[in-house]
Protein 1
Amino acid sequence: MPKVFVFSRAGDPNVLKQAGCELVIGKEEWLLPGGNNEPEMSRLAQNAHALMGHSIRNSPITRNILTASPELRIVAKTTVGVDDIDVDAATELGILVTHAPVESNWGNVAENTVAYILAFAKRVRERDAEIKSGGWRRSDIRGFYVGSRGSDGYEGITLGIIGLGRIGGRVAQLMRPWNIRILAYDPHIPDYRFLEFGVKAVDKETLLRESDFVTVHVVLNRETRHMISTNELAIMKRTAFLINTARGGTVDEAALAHALERDGIAGAAIDCFEVEPVPQESPLRRMGDKVILTPHGGLSMPRTAEGGLGGGPVWASESVLDALHGKVPDHVFNTEAIALWQQRFGGKSVIEERARVTV
């Protein structure tokens, strides 16, 4: 009986049970900060053929957990992010890491980004607070126009998008009707993508120097960790705003706090933090209206249907079943591990009958 360790909430376990898998379910408290859960997780991962789950940043999948079972074939995530997994160790061990690259929450992240832009530009929070405190109009909390105005020659804001993937591209689509200037930096996509989204391709320094809003939409890896730090913040306009809805580690929070304290930039909207939940002692909590802080994604639901992660849990189950059958699944993140994985597990099935998974 193949063993699947479900380390955090993930899909319908009945699909894997029907395929003859033994399921070991993790604890909800592993999702909370504090404590060392690695020993218990390593124990439950012993002899596992697969790991599967949702985001688990407070109890990441470490090398010790990955090496708890010599039979481990796959770590399947129901979400897009894999920064809670030691991907380098998995690759070295010949273990595949899969994710859900089009889980439905990406649209919510793009819309949240637009909301942050408008909240800063229109000073929504400040004007609301003024009225609730008994005031009315104050000249120091005026908003400004986002879109261009032909009547007086105002050209609108310049928006800089770092990472023109699924989310960054959607932000560009949502902002194009405002008739603004949109710059984008992404060295990993073909030129036609910039044309498709109606943005101008520039280098990162140009984007930082010329943008009124800089929004980050990248995965977290060695290349992108602290890609926005002291030097980058110093290039930005003093009137500019930074938005990070990607991963906390892409922005150096200490450098950001320092820049905000000395008015190096005008403000920042942060939806993801280097440590989550954001620590009580974080200086970002004391920045007042200079910052908008939200709790990483906060899944939104369509008005007419159940929201959430969409197909992510289904794809994770499919990926596990493929791997248990000795087949390379779709959505492999660490593709460089495939060759070694094929040597270890290719064509070697540990289950008898393929389960059909339906959405």
Protein 2
Amino acid sequence: MTTDALPPWLTEPLAQALQATRGHALLLHGPQGIGQFELAMAVASAWLCEEEEGARPSGRACGHCSACHLLAARTHPDLLVLIPEALQDALGWNAADDADDAEGGKGKGKAKPSKEIKVEAVRAAVAFAQQTASRGGAKLVVVHPADRMNATSANALLKTLEEPPGRARFVLTSSAPQRLLPTVRSRCQAQRVPLPDAGVATSWLAARQVEEAAVLLAAAGGAPLDVIDRLALGVDAACWQRLPREVMAGHSATLAAWPLPLAIEALQKLCHDAMALAVGAAPRYFPVAALPTGAELSRLTDCARELRAEARRAEHPWNATLAVESLVQSVRYAMQSPVSGRVARDPLATLAR
């Protein structure tokens, strides 16, 4: 990862991380979809770069020394990247060595890719950090996202975070730092990475031929990398602006084609914006012209509570299609204006869950 490849909104956070970090462990935290992994790798590259610091602007990696070439080829012997199996392809980090080290390398072809960072992976990282650096510098471990460590995995890392061997250093990322053990957080120097300026993010997306970038950026809550991921799933601007009408018509085909967590999130955003209109506020995720008006706040509040409960179960539905159909009817009912006639709740709706 070279700093030239970084999105422009990460330039200042990178400079801050390189100038302000004094300890051996850095925790980068902020909203999902803004490039935490890319920033962590840029920090790691700078820390492992072998060019004289005076010859590097703001301490960034030079991009042309031997260490930088090894990093670009993902073969640097003093860097270990811990990411869950389920994220490896999405991040483009599925090199055989790191994949095997991070997840044990056993039975990967048969088992469903894990969404957690397993304790075996953390123990391997601890052993890695204790080894002598091959190139005479630091041993460096990147953990992304650190909140994917379960309690056992996090506890396995605690001792090393508290008393790192030699010159070992760690970069952790998280979009939900509150899920980390307090003892993990206390051993790291924390740096918040904010959402990018909307204008900067919209320009960046437009430069990548993203049509109606402002609409999609709002749909993604201001996270530009989420826009790119959602486009790959078919969530374009026309689809997003059409969604409220489809829900009000009771149509669930569009949402049923998306992963269930994304479908529920879209319904939550629709419910949020309907509540905003109900109290005279501006919507956040959908254009105001795309939204129905006149819904009762009490029904929307009940619906939002139901959606939150479903979101907690979204990774393990027994029938995702039926779940979406049921939730669409619930949102449709909640958003129906009393003056235009009520939509009866489907008495079988709860059977989908």
Protein 3
Amino acid sequence: MDARKLSESEAPQGLKCGTFGASALSDRSLATGGHGGALQVWDLERPSTPSWSCEAHRGIVNAIDGVGGARAGHGAPEVATAGADGCLRVWDLRQRSAPVASFEPAAGSRARDCWSCAFGDSWNDEERCVAAGYDNGDVKLFDLRAGRLRYSTNLQNGVCGLEFDRRETRLNTLAVSCLEGAFYVIDARTQHPSQGMAACSQQAPSAATLWGAKHSPHNRDLFMLHGGSGCLWLHKYCYPDQRVKKDAEGREAGVAGSTALLASFQASTQPIQAFDWSPDKEGLAVCGSFDQCVRVLAVTGLNKL
């Protein structure tokens, strides 16, 4: 198998993150976040200069996610950006003068570095939410239709990556990967008024940073963890016998499930900071690591799980 370079261009500042998620398959526009705080959209047919650019954050754009385009999602083609200035912003690529939503640190409070973001709950044209993870372990879920904070918790470890099992369905589970090898699966379907959302916590075999958790597009209960040890861990989320229980006052509360480690693979001697599955071929995946290598992987037997 060979990789053939089709074109090459150089941006004036370093690029930190990117997504195709807000573009239609026919467009294939790439939205990127840079070290200078810029959000840029690139037409890959003409990659020498961005087709649109704006100053999204003061400082690095740490993470980016897109929704409403590449998949059969609902609503506007939107991009979320997480910045080192502690802000989470949502942009509609059809109206680019200003963000359609901006969630910023409270006045007078210390701005925590926002490290990660992910769209979810996009099951019709009205509903949508975005989750954000911060360097102090905060995980916040923002309701974009209502424009408010929907849920907040603290996991004690900096949140490097998070992803809903599906963007385009009602909230189900949210996988969260953290510093020191910690990861969590939050049951986002049920939120108790005082107890919040149920979650199971696990520790990876290595205490190195877990950069992300990526769900298989063919089985929403399978996700791959990738991290600082250069290892990949395939996990399955196992639902409890009863997902909801009622408290003494009859209010519903979620019940956390558990995770099972199915397989592991030492892909690199350096940290694996990026991983993604093929939406077309089950088990086909790609990862990038600090040794400047891109590896194409095949995970077999997933159709039996």
